[in-house]
Amino acid sequence: MSTSTWSGMVPVDDTALAVTDTGGPGRPLVYLNGSYADSSPWRPLIGALGEDYRHITFDERARGKSKRSADYSFEACLRDIDAVLAATGVQRPLIVGWSYGALLAVHWADRNPDRVAGVVSVDGAMPYGLTGAEGEARIRKLFHRMRFLLPLARPMGLAARMSADQHAEVNIEANRLHAALAPVLHRADYPVRYVLATGANLGGGEDEMEAVRASLNPVLAANPNLRVSAKVASNHSHILRKDFRAVADAVRDLAALPERKAI
Fold this sequence. Notes:
The protein is α/β, with parallel strands linked by helices and 263 residues long. The protein has one domain (6-255): Alpha/Beta hydrolase fold, catalytic domain (Rossmann fold, 3-Layer(aba) Sandwich), CATH 3.40.50. 40% of the residues lie in helices and 18% in strands. The chain is built from 11 helices and 8 strands. Helix 1 crosses helix 11 (244-255) and helix 4 (132-145) packs antiparallel against helix 6 (164-179). It is globular, with a radius of gyration of 17 Å. It starts with 5 loop residues before the first strand and ends in an 8-residue tail after the last helix.
């Protein structure tokens, strides 16, 4: 698209996304944020990787500087990736996704295997989810309790401009997709590198989060394209701030692989 940094709004459906593209000839990286986060948590990683890469970040619908929408579904988020790639002209990027963004990354790559060079999954895209009436009730209860805190978290890039119910529905859909993720990972013919956190997470205790990470073991054993690059000391929420160097190493590992041929 250009050889210098560009920032602007990219229209898609009934909304517009705030996009930044550093431009230049470097290997293109597309960053996909956590479910309610803006793109600011990527700054340490982008700084560590530097000018050898072309960095493309964007805020999802109702996150950060992007506009609201009538559709916050997972399918809408997949369309947003296509819109950003079309606007920037990027071909066959490496996709770096954190949490919900990692789930998006492997689903988008599954649908577009000839358009992706590889995926770095930062504590996400693991085949485990809270499902059924009990799991969904737990998620709705959590966000109902947080309803007064969400507006306070928005300026820090940690919540969306959505109601608590909308936050919950995004999370419920993501859990359903995570629970059904194993076939997507089994058929991945592109390289995936996982950087896994340790410890607890908001809404999940330490034992539960370790069970989530352990759900990867069968697919790792079955598909050699999937590997754990590192398991780091920080937890899910702090991994991009405290262990961005491990994520940078995973990116460099993928970038050093021979270029995959288009299917």
